[in-house]
Design brief:
Length: 501
Protein backbone atom coordinates (compact mmCIF):
# COMPACT_ATOMS: atom_id res chain seq x y z
CA UNK A 1 0.00 0.00 0.00
CA UNK A 2 1.35 3.43 -0.90
CA UNK A 3 1.96 6.01 1.77
CA UNK A 4 -1.00 8.37 1.85
CA UNK A 5 -1.45 11.50 3.92
CA UNK A 6 -5.17 11.30 4.28
CA UNK A 7 -5.90 7.64 4.92
CA UNK A 8 -8.05 7.67 8.04
CA UNK A 9 -11.81 7.08 7.72
CA UNK A 10 -13.83 9.90 6.20
CA UNK A 11 -15.46 12.36 8.52
CA UNK A 12 -19.14 12.01 7.75
CA UNK A 13 -20.29 15.40 8.90
CA UNK A 14 -19.21 18.36 10.95
CA UNK A 15 -19.17 17.71 14.68
CA UNK A 16 -20.82 20.75 16.21
CA UNK A 17 -19.06 20.05 19.51
CA UNK A 18 -15.61 20.37 17.90
CA UNK A 19 -15.01 24.11 17.78
CA UNK A 20 -11.91 23.86 15.59
CA UNK A 21 -13.47 21.52 13.07
CA UNK A 22 -16.47 23.79 12.63
CA UNK A 23 -14.16 26.79 12.10
CA UNK A 24 -11.49 24.93 10.13
CA UNK A 25 -11.57 27.09 6.99
CA UNK A 26 -11.46 30.30 9.00
CA UNK A 27 -8.56 28.84 10.98
CA UNK A 28 -6.77 28.01 7.73
CA UNK A 29 -7.12 31.65 6.64
CA UNK A 30 -5.67 32.85 9.96
CA UNK A 31 -2.69 30.50 10.04
CA UNK A 32 -2.15 31.07 6.33
CA UNK A 33 -1.65 34.79 6.96
CA UNK A 34 0.64 33.95 9.89
CA UNK A 35 2.71 31.59 7.75
CA UNK A 36 2.92 34.13 4.94
CA UNK A 37 4.04 36.86 7.34
CA UNK A 38 6.98 35.07 8.93
CA UNK A 39 8.34 33.64 5.66
CA UNK A 40 7.79 36.87 3.77
CA UNK A 41 10.00 38.57 6.35
CA UNK A 42 12.85 36.22 5.45
CA UNK A 43 13.24 38.02 2.10
CA UNK A 44 11.24 41.28 2.22
CA UNK A 45 14.22 43.32 3.41
CA UNK A 46 16.68 41.87 0.85
CA UNK A 47 15.95 44.40 -1.86
CA UNK A 48 15.61 47.21 0.71
CA UNK A 49 19.15 46.73 2.05
CA UNK A 50 20.88 49.38 -0.09
CA UNK A 51 18.33 52.01 1.01
CA UNK A 52 18.58 50.99 4.66
CA UNK A 53 22.37 51.07 4.44
CA UNK A 54 22.37 54.59 3.01
CA UNK A 55 19.90 55.76 5.65
CA UNK A 56 21.58 54.24 8.73
CA UNK A 57 25.16 54.42 7.50
CA UNK A 58 26.40 50.88 8.08
CA UNK A 59 29.07 49.20 5.96
CA UNK A 60 28.87 46.54 3.25
CA UNK A 61 30.20 43.90 5.64
CA UNK A 62 27.30 44.52 8.01
CA UNK A 63 24.49 44.20 5.46
CA UNK A 64 24.15 40.44 5.73
CA UNK A 65 23.31 40.77 9.43
CA UNK A 66 19.96 42.37 8.65
CA UNK A 67 19.00 39.04 7.11
CA UNK A 68 21.16 36.72 9.22
CA UNK A 69 19.94 38.05 12.58
CA UNK A 70 16.38 37.05 11.70
CA UNK A 71 17.39 33.67 10.27
CA UNK A 72 19.65 32.77 13.22
CA UNK A 73 17.01 33.49 15.85
CA UNK A 74 14.27 31.82 13.82
CA UNK A 75 16.22 28.65 13.11
CA UNK A 76 17.86 28.19 16.50
CA UNK A 77 14.72 28.75 18.59
CA UNK A 78 12.21 26.72 16.59
CA UNK A 79 12.45 23.56 18.71
CA UNK A 80 12.01 25.62 21.87
CA UNK A 81 9.06 27.38 20.28
CA UNK A 82 7.47 24.07 19.34
CA UNK A 83 7.66 22.72 22.87
CA UNK A 84 6.32 25.97 24.32
CA UNK A 85 3.32 25.52 22.04
CA UNK A 86 2.77 22.06 23.53
CA UNK A 87 3.10 23.40 27.09
CA UNK A 88 1.09 26.64 27.04
CA UNK A 89 -1.26 25.89 24.14
CA UNK A 90 -1.26 26.82 20.47
CA UNK A 91 -3.78 29.66 20.63
CA UNK A 92 -2.06 31.41 23.52
CA UNK A 93 1.34 30.90 21.88
CA UNK A 94 0.16 32.28 18.56
CA UNK A 95 -1.46 35.37 20.04
CA UNK A 96 1.52 36.23 22.25
CA UNK A 97 4.03 35.62 19.46
CA UNK A 98 2.15 37.54 16.78
CA UNK A 99 1.87 40.60 19.03
CA UNK A 100 5.59 40.38 19.75
CA UNK A 101 6.31 40.04 16.04
CA UNK A 102 4.27 43.15 15.26
CA UNK A 103 5.86 45.25 18.01
CA UNK A 104 9.41 44.29 17.00
CA UNK A 105 8.56 45.00 13.34
CA UNK A 106 7.64 48.57 14.33
CA UNK A 107 10.87 48.76 16.34
CA UNK A 108 12.87 47.74 13.27
CA UNK A 109 11.04 50.15 10.99
CA UNK A 110 11.70 53.01 13.40
CA UNK A 111 15.39 52.08 13.81
CA UNK A 112 17.75 55.03 14.16
CA UNK A 113 20.92 52.92 14.23
CA UNK A 114 22.29 49.66 12.87
CA UNK A 115 22.30 48.09 16.35
CA UNK A 116 18.62 48.93 16.83
CA UNK A 117 17.71 47.39 13.47
CA UNK A 118 19.66 44.18 14.13
CA UNK A 119 18.16 43.81 17.61
CA UNK A 120 14.67 44.19 16.18
CA UNK A 121 15.36 41.63 13.45
CA UNK A 122 16.67 39.09 15.98
CA UNK A 123 13.59 39.59 18.16
CA UNK A 124 11.38 39.17 15.10
CA UNK A 125 13.06 35.84 14.40
CA UNK A 126 12.55 34.72 17.99
CA UNK A 127 8.83 35.44 17.89
CA UNK A 128 8.57 33.83 14.43
CA UNK A 129 9.99 30.64 15.98
CA UNK A 130 6.88 30.51 18.17
CA UNK A 131 4.40 31.55 15.47
CA UNK A 132 5.41 28.81 12.99
CA UNK A 133 4.79 25.69 15.13
CA UNK A 134 1.68 27.21 16.72
CA UNK A 135 0.16 27.81 13.29
CA UNK A 136 1.03 24.40 11.83
CA UNK A 137 -0.21 22.48 14.88
CA UNK A 138 -3.75 23.70 14.22
CA UNK A 139 -3.81 21.92 10.86
CA UNK A 140 -3.26 18.62 12.66
CA UNK A 141 -6.47 18.93 14.66
CA UNK A 142 -8.82 21.16 12.67
CA UNK A 143 -8.82 19.07 9.47
CA UNK A 144 -9.93 15.45 9.73
CA UNK A 145 -11.36 14.70 6.30
CA UNK A 146 -8.49 13.29 4.18
CA UNK A 147 -9.12 15.38 1.08
CA UNK A 148 -9.68 18.55 3.08
CA UNK A 149 -6.46 17.98 4.96
CA UNK A 150 -4.49 17.63 1.72
CA UNK A 151 -5.93 20.93 0.48
CA UNK A 152 -5.21 22.64 3.81
CA UNK A 153 -1.57 21.51 3.88
CA UNK A 154 -1.26 22.61 0.25
CA UNK A 155 -2.43 26.14 1.02
CA UNK A 156 -0.17 26.27 4.09
CA UNK A 157 2.86 25.07 2.14
CA UNK A 158 2.22 27.39 -0.80
CA UNK A 159 1.99 30.42 1.46
CA UNK A 160 5.24 29.46 3.19
CA UNK A 161 7.40 28.90 0.11
CA UNK A 162 5.50 31.48 -1.92
CA UNK A 163 6.04 33.97 0.88
CA UNK A 164 9.78 33.90 0.18
CA UNK A 165 9.15 35.06 -3.39
CA UNK A 166 6.35 37.44 -2.45
CA UNK A 167 8.74 39.06 0.00
CA UNK A 168 10.98 40.06 -2.90
CA UNK A 169 8.04 41.57 -4.80
CA UNK A 170 6.64 43.40 -1.79
CA UNK A 171 10.09 44.57 -0.71
CA UNK A 172 10.80 46.00 -4.15
CA UNK A 173 7.42 47.74 -4.37
CA UNK A 174 7.57 49.28 -0.90
CA UNK A 175 11.18 50.39 -1.34
CA UNK A 176 10.55 51.98 -4.75
CA UNK A 177 7.20 53.57 -3.95
CA UNK A 178 7.44 54.43 -0.25
CA UNK A 179 10.49 53.80 1.96
CA UNK A 180 12.52 50.80 3.11
CA UNK A 181 11.01 51.15 6.60
CA UNK A 182 7.62 50.10 5.24
CA UNK A 183 9.09 46.65 4.55
CA UNK A 184 8.83 46.24 8.35
CA UNK A 185 5.85 48.47 9.12
CA UNK A 186 3.67 46.44 6.74
CA UNK A 187 3.81 43.53 9.19
CA UNK A 188 1.48 45.41 11.54
CA UNK A 189 -1.43 44.85 9.14
CA UNK A 190 -0.77 41.11 8.98
CA UNK A 191 -0.26 40.70 12.72
CA UNK A 192 -3.50 42.53 13.57
CA UNK A 193 -5.43 40.22 11.22
CA UNK A 194 -3.84 37.12 12.77
CA UNK A 195 -4.47 38.28 16.35
CA UNK A 196 -8.15 39.05 15.76
CA UNK A 197 -8.63 35.86 13.75
CA UNK A 198 -7.01 33.70 16.43
CA UNK A 199 -9.12 35.30 19.14
CA UNK A 200 -12.34 34.52 17.25
CA UNK A 201 -11.67 31.09 15.75
CA UNK A 202 -9.33 29.18 18.10
CA UNK A 203 -9.36 27.52 21.51
CA UNK A 204 -6.61 26.13 23.73
CA UNK A 205 -6.36 22.46 24.56
CA UNK A 206 -7.17 21.54 28.15
CA UNK A 207 -4.16 21.83 30.45
CA UNK A 208 -4.32 18.15 31.38
CA UNK A 209 -3.54 17.21 27.75
CA UNK A 210 -0.28 19.19 27.67
CA UNK A 211 3.26 18.47 28.91
CA UNK A 212 3.83 19.92 32.36
CA UNK A 213 7.39 21.23 32.15
CA UNK A 214 10.16 22.26 29.79
CA UNK A 215 13.27 20.17 29.16
CA UNK A 216 15.89 22.80 30.14
CA UNK A 217 19.07 20.78 29.29
CA UNK A 218 17.57 19.84 25.94
CA UNK A 219 16.53 23.44 25.30
CA UNK A 220 20.02 24.78 25.96
CA UNK A 221 21.90 22.16 23.94
CA UNK A 222 19.48 22.33 20.99
CA UNK A 223 19.17 26.12 20.83
CA UNK A 224 22.89 26.84 21.25
CA UNK A 225 23.83 23.95 18.96
CA UNK A 226 21.52 25.15 16.18
CA UNK A 227 22.75 28.72 16.64
CA UNK A 228 26.40 27.62 16.32
CA UNK A 229 25.53 25.59 13.23
CA UNK A 230 23.71 28.42 11.48
CA UNK A 231 26.22 31.08 12.56
CA UNK A 232 29.21 28.99 11.53
CA UNK A 233 27.70 28.28 8.13
CA UNK A 234 26.81 31.94 7.61
CA UNK A 235 30.47 32.81 8.21
CA UNK A 236 31.44 30.34 5.49
CA UNK A 237 29.21 31.74 2.75
CA UNK A 238 32.18 33.73 1.39
CA UNK A 239 33.96 30.47 0.61
CA UNK A 240 36.44 30.62 3.50
CA UNK A 241 36.14 27.60 5.82
CA UNK A 242 39.52 28.00 7.52
CA UNK A 243 38.61 30.42 10.29
CA UNK A 244 37.80 29.40 13.86
CA UNK A 245 34.55 31.32 13.44
CA UNK A 246 33.55 28.58 10.97
CA UNK A 247 35.08 25.25 11.94
CA UNK A 248 35.14 26.09 15.65
CA UNK A 249 31.42 26.89 15.69
CA UNK A 250 30.59 23.85 13.54
CA UNK A 251 32.58 21.55 15.86
CA UNK A 252 30.80 23.05 18.87
CA UNK A 253 27.50 22.50 17.11
CA UNK A 254 28.25 18.82 16.49
CA UNK A 255 29.12 18.28 20.16
CA UNK A 256 26.03 20.09 21.44
CA UNK A 257 23.58 18.48 19.03
CA UNK A 258 25.00 15.04 19.78
CA UNK A 259 24.57 15.75 23.48
CA UNK A 260 21.02 16.91 22.73
CA UNK A 261 20.09 13.60 21.09
CA UNK A 262 21.57 11.61 23.98
CA UNK A 263 19.68 13.76 26.50
CA UNK A 264 16.40 13.38 24.62
CA UNK A 265 16.73 9.59 24.70
CA UNK A 266 16.97 9.63 28.50
CA UNK A 267 14.68 12.39 29.71
CA UNK A 268 11.01 11.84 30.56
CA UNK A 269 9.94 15.25 29.19
CA UNK A 270 12.01 15.71 26.01
CA UNK A 271 12.10 18.93 24.03
CA UNK A 272 11.94 16.78 20.89
CA UNK A 273 10.51 13.30 21.49
CA UNK A 274 12.73 11.04 19.39
CA UNK A 275 9.71 8.89 18.57
CA UNK A 276 8.62 11.66 16.21
CA UNK A 277 11.50 11.05 13.79
CA UNK A 278 11.93 7.28 14.20
CA UNK A 279 8.90 6.53 12.03
CA UNK A 280 10.31 5.60 8.61
CA UNK A 281 7.87 7.60 6.48
CA UNK A 282 8.00 10.61 8.75
CA UNK A 283 11.81 10.51 8.66
CA UNK A 284 11.73 10.46 4.85
CA UNK A 285 9.46 13.51 4.85
CA UNK A 286 11.78 15.43 7.17
CA UNK A 287 14.72 14.53 4.91
CA UNK A 288 12.82 15.81 1.87
CA UNK A 289 12.09 19.10 3.65
CA UNK A 290 15.76 19.42 4.63
CA UNK A 291 16.97 18.86 1.06
CA UNK A 292 14.35 21.25 -0.26
CA UNK A 293 15.83 23.92 2.02
CA UNK A 294 19.34 23.19 0.71
CA UNK A 295 18.41 24.11 -2.84
CA UNK A 296 15.45 26.47 -2.43
CA UNK A 297 17.18 29.29 -0.56
CA UNK A 298 20.17 29.18 -2.92
CA UNK A 299 17.91 29.41 -5.95
CA UNK A 300 16.34 32.60 -4.61
CA UNK A 301 19.76 34.06 -3.80
CA UNK A 302 21.60 33.43 -7.06
CA UNK A 303 18.61 34.02 -9.31
CA UNK A 304 18.20 37.45 -7.69
CA UNK A 305 21.87 38.16 -8.43
CA UNK A 306 21.44 37.13 -12.06
CA UNK A 307 18.31 39.25 -12.53
CA UNK A 308 19.77 42.39 -10.99
CA UNK A 309 23.43 42.19 -12.01
CA UNK A 310 23.27 40.50 -15.41
CA UNK A 311 19.81 41.36 -16.75
CA UNK A 312 19.91 44.70 -14.86
CA UNK A 313 16.34 44.39 -13.58
CA UNK A 314 15.10 46.98 -11.09
CA UNK A 315 14.16 45.98 -7.55
CA UNK A 316 10.46 45.58 -8.25
CA UNK A 317 11.03 43.97 -11.66
CA UNK A 318 13.33 41.41 -10.02
CA UNK A 319 10.60 40.57 -7.54
CA UNK A 320 7.98 40.24 -10.27
CA UNK A 321 10.30 37.88 -12.15
CA UNK A 322 9.59 35.30 -9.43
CA UNK A 323 5.87 35.22 -10.27
CA UNK A 324 6.21 32.07 -12.45
CA UNK A 325 7.75 30.28 -9.49
CA UNK A 326 4.98 31.50 -7.18
CA UNK A 327 2.35 30.23 -9.64
CA UNK A 328 4.18 26.90 -9.87
CA UNK A 329 4.33 26.59 -6.09
CA UNK A 330 0.61 27.28 -5.88
CA UNK A 331 -0.18 24.59 -8.46
CA UNK A 332 2.20 22.06 -6.92
CA UNK A 333 0.88 22.64 -3.40
CA UNK A 334 -2.85 23.08 -3.91
CA UNK A 335 -3.93 21.60 -7.25
CA UNK A 336 -1.80 18.51 -7.83
CA UNK A 337 -1.96 16.82 -4.36
CA UNK A 338 -5.78 16.51 -4.09
CA UNK A 339 -5.90 14.99 -7.58
CA UNK A 340 -2.95 12.60 -7.43
CA UNK A 341 -2.18 11.87 -3.75
CA UNK A 342 -5.11 9.45 -3.23
CA UNK A 343 -3.98 7.47 -6.29
CA UNK A 344 -0.18 7.61 -6.05
CA UNK A 345 0.52 8.41 -2.41
CA UNK A 346 3.08 10.78 -0.94
CA UNK A 347 5.91 8.26 -1.29
CA UNK A 348 5.65 8.79 -5.07
CA UNK A 349 4.74 12.48 -5.19
CA UNK A 350 7.39 13.79 -2.76
CA UNK A 351 10.31 12.26 -4.73
CA UNK A 352 8.58 13.40 -7.92
CA UNK A 353 8.54 16.94 -6.55
CA UNK A 354 12.28 16.75 -5.91
CA UNK A 355 12.80 15.52 -9.48
CA UNK A 356 10.86 18.50 -10.86
CA UNK A 357 12.94 20.82 -8.66
CA UNK A 358 16.08 19.17 -10.07
CA UNK A 359 14.86 19.65 -13.67
CA UNK A 360 14.20 23.34 -13.09
CA UNK A 361 17.51 23.87 -11.31
CA UNK A 362 19.49 22.01 -13.99
CA UNK A 363 17.79 24.10 -16.67
CA UNK A 364 18.89 27.26 -14.85
CA UNK A 365 22.45 25.91 -14.80
CA UNK A 366 22.50 26.50 -18.59
CA UNK A 367 22.15 30.28 -18.19
CA UNK A 368 24.61 32.53 -20.05
CA UNK A 369 25.36 36.25 -20.17
CA UNK A 370 23.05 36.69 -23.17
CA UNK A 371 20.17 34.62 -21.74
CA UNK A 372 16.75 36.24 -21.53
CA UNK A 373 14.04 36.00 -18.90
CA UNK A 374 11.38 34.66 -21.27
CA UNK A 375 13.67 32.18 -22.98
CA UNK A 376 15.74 30.85 -20.08
CA UNK A 377 14.17 31.67 -16.71
CA UNK A 378 10.38 31.70 -16.84
CA UNK A 379 9.85 28.02 -17.73
CA UNK A 380 12.45 26.45 -15.40
CA UNK A 381 11.32 28.52 -12.41
CA UNK A 382 7.72 27.48 -13.07
CA UNK A 383 8.70 23.80 -13.23
CA UNK A 384 10.86 24.06 -10.11
CA UNK A 385 7.99 25.86 -8.36
CA UNK A 386 5.64 22.93 -8.97
CA UNK A 387 8.23 20.63 -7.42
CA UNK A 388 8.74 22.94 -4.43
CA UNK A 389 4.98 23.07 -3.88
CA UNK A 390 4.63 19.29 -3.92
CA UNK A 391 7.44 18.72 -1.44
CA UNK A 392 6.55 21.47 1.02
CA UNK A 393 2.84 20.61 1.19
CA UNK A 394 3.00 16.82 1.26
CA UNK A 395 6.26 16.82 3.22
CA UNK A 396 4.69 18.94 5.96
CA UNK A 397 1.67 16.66 6.06
CA UNK A 398 3.52 13.33 6.25
CA UNK A 399 6.02 14.76 8.75
CA UNK A 400 3.25 15.67 11.21
CA UNK A 401 0.38 13.25 10.60
CA UNK A 402 -0.06 10.58 13.24
CA UNK A 403 1.87 12.35 16.03
CA UNK A 404 0.48 12.38 19.56
CA UNK A 405 -1.56 15.53 20.33
CA UNK A 406 0.91 16.55 23.04
CA UNK A 407 3.75 16.38 20.48
CA UNK A 408 2.04 18.45 17.77
CA UNK A 409 4.06 21.60 18.50
CA UNK A 410 7.40 19.76 18.55
CA UNK A 411 6.66 17.92 15.31
CA UNK A 412 5.50 21.14 13.64
CA UNK A 413 8.62 22.99 14.79
CA UNK A 414 10.88 20.28 13.37
CA UNK A 415 9.35 20.80 9.90
CA UNK A 416 10.55 24.40 9.87
CA UNK A 417 13.81 23.58 11.66
CA UNK A 418 15.05 21.09 9.07
CA UNK A 419 14.15 23.49 6.26
CA UNK A 420 15.99 26.39 7.92
CA UNK A 421 19.04 24.22 8.66
CA UNK A 422 18.99 22.97 5.08
CA UNK A 423 18.90 26.54 3.84
CA UNK A 424 21.91 27.49 5.99
CA UNK A 425 23.93 24.48 4.86
CA UNK A 426 22.97 24.92 1.22
CA UNK A 427 23.81 28.62 1.16
CA UNK A 428 27.25 28.03 2.70
CA UNK A 429 28.23 24.97 0.64
CA UNK A 430 26.88 26.12 -2.71
CA UNK A 431 28.23 29.65 -2.21
CA UNK A 432 31.67 28.10 -1.70
CA UNK A 433 31.34 26.11 -4.92
CA UNK A 434 30.11 29.23 -6.73
CA UNK A 435 33.04 31.35 -5.56
CA UNK A 436 35.52 28.62 -6.49
CA UNK A 437 33.98 28.37 -9.96
CA UNK A 438 34.25 32.13 -10.50
CA UNK A 439 37.89 32.19 -9.39
CA UNK A 440 38.74 29.29 -11.68
CA UNK A 441 37.04 30.99 -14.61
CA UNK A 442 39.03 34.20 -14.09
CA UNK A 443 42.42 32.46 -14.01
CA UNK A 444 44.50 33.45 -17.03
CA UNK A 445 41.85 35.81 -18.43
CA UNK A 446 42.03 39.56 -18.81
CA UNK A 447 39.61 41.13 -16.27
CA UNK A 448 37.31 42.96 -18.70
CA UNK A 449 33.67 43.81 -17.81
CA UNK A 450 32.47 41.00 -20.08
CA UNK A 451 34.80 38.45 -18.48
CA UNK A 452 33.70 39.59 -15.01
CA UNK A 453 30.05 39.10 -16.02
CA UNK A 454 30.82 35.66 -17.47
CA UNK A 455 32.63 34.69 -14.26
CA UNK A 456 29.62 35.77 -12.22
CA UNK A 457 27.28 33.71 -14.39
CA UNK A 458 29.64 30.74 -14.07
CA UNK A 459 29.33 31.00 -10.29
CA UNK A 460 25.52 31.17 -10.41
CA UNK A 461 25.16 28.24 -12.81
CA UNK A 462 27.54 26.14 -10.71
CA UNK A 463 25.29 26.69 -7.69
CA UNK A 464 22.21 25.77 -9.74
CA UNK A 465 23.87 22.61 -11.05
CA UNK A 466 24.85 21.31 -7.62
CA UNK A 467 21.44 22.28 -6.30
CA UNK A 468 19.98 20.03 -8.99
CA UNK A 469 22.31 17.22 -7.92
CA UNK A 470 21.10 17.60 -4.31
CA UNK A 471 17.44 17.48 -5.39
CA UNK A 472 17.98 14.43 -7.60
CA UNK A 473 19.94 12.53 -4.96
CA UNK A 474 17.23 13.42 -2.45
CA UNK A 475 14.54 12.03 -4.74
CA UNK A 476 16.35 8.68 -4.91
CA UNK A 477 17.08 8.46 -1.17
CA UNK A 478 13.59 9.53 -0.10
CA UNK A 479 12.01 7.17 -2.61
CA UNK A 480 13.96 4.26 -1.11
CA UNK A 481 13.36 5.36 2.47
CA UNK A 482 9.58 5.49 2.31
CA UNK A 483 8.04 2.25 3.56
CA UNK A 484 6.05 0.78 0.67
CA UNK A 485 4.48 -2.04 2.67
CA UNK A 486 3.44 -0.41 5.94
CA UNK A 487 -0.13 0.67 6.48
CA UNK A 488 -0.69 4.34 5.85
CA UNK A 489 -0.54 6.48 8.95
CA UNK A 490 -3.60 7.95 10.56
CA UNK A 491 -4.18 10.43 13.27
CA UNK A 492 -6.38 8.04 15.18
CA UNK A 493 -7.11 4.39 14.68
CA UNK A 494 -10.87 4.76 14.81
CA UNK A 495 -11.06 8.04 12.97
CA UNK A 496 -12.36 9.83 16.05
CA UNK A 497 -11.71 13.53 16.35
CA UNK A 498 -8.44 14.48 18.02
CA UNK A 499 -8.32 16.69 21.11
CA UNK A 500 -8.14 20.37 20.25
CA UNK A 501 -4.75 22.07 20.47
Amino acid sequence: MSESVGSEPKVAAEDASDFHYVNRWKILAVIGIAQLTIFLDTTVVNIALPSAQADLGFGDGDRQWVITAYALAFGSLLLLGGRLVDIIGAKRSLMIAIVGFGVTSVLGGAATSFAMLITARALQGGFAALVAPAALSFLLTAFKDPQERIKAFGVYGALGSGGLALGLILGGALTDWLDWRWCLYVNVLFTVLVFIGAMLTMQNRQAGDRPEKLDLPGTLTASIGLFCLAYGLSNADDGDWGGVDVWGLLATSVVLLTAFVLLELRTRTPLLPIRIVLDRNRGAAYLAMFLLGVGLFVQFLFLTYFLQLILEFSAIKSGLAFLPMIVGIGIGATTVPPALEPKLGSRILIPAGLVLAAVGSFWLSRLAVDSSFLGSIMAPTFIAGIGFGLVVSLGSAVATVGVEPQDAGAASALVNTVQQVGGSIGTALLSTLAITAADSFLEGREPTPLVAAEAAVESYTTAFFWGAVVFLAGAVVCGLLFDRHAKAQSDSEDGAPLPVV
